[in-house]
Design a protein that fits this description.
Blueprint lengths: L4 H6 L4 H12 L8 E7 L2 E7 L8 E6 L2 E6 L21 E6 L4 E9 L2 E8 L28
Antiparallel strand pairs: 1-2, 2-7, 3-4, 4-5, 6-7
């Protein structure tokens, strides 16, 4: 826990930021299901979640703005009541949220061996990529090749 009192004394207009930091430091993140976030290339990422016991139809992936929400809920199978002597595999409902950076898009998802893989890629539009601007509107002189008269 951090004491943000000095921040309040020496800044003006940052009270919202300080309040957000207070809330973030007191927030306890859920630990189920476990997940990894991997960087595969410069602009490619993958989120891998351990969802053993869930079928693809039990999982919902939703992107809304810059928020990615993955939720899972087992379909009720009331036909057969199973009596567990020990239940170590969790199959409780879950909801996990990820905040995506600007221009990060979800490209797909798949399940393999109890792991859910979500592919992400950063695609910056051409209009937002850095470009060079000529000084005083003058382009660099072009070299014209002289051809010999025949």
């Amino acid at each position: 826990m951090f004491d943000l009192t000095p921040l309040y004394r020496s800044t003006v207009g940052f009270d919202r930021l300080a309040r957000m930091l207070d809330e973030a430091s007191s927030f306890e993140a859920p630990s189920y299901p476990p997940y990894n976030i991997e960087r595969l290339a410069e602009d490619e990422y993958r989120i891998t979640m351990a969802v053993a016991g869930f079928a693809p139809e039990d999982i919902t992936i939703e992107v809304k703005g810059n928020a990615l929400t993955v939720s899972g809920k087992k379909a009720d199978k009331t036909e057969s009541k199973i009596e567990f002597l020990h239940q170590g595999i969790a199959s409780r409902a879950f909801e996990r949220r990820f905040q995506l950076a600007d221009h990060v898009l979800v490209h797909g998802a798949g399940m393999e061996n109890g792991l859910l893989h979500i592919s992400l890629k950063r695609e910056v539009p051409e209009a937002l990529k850095p470009r060079t601007i000529p000084v005083n509107g003058v382009q660099a002189p072009k070299t014209i090749e002289a051809k010999k008269a025949a």
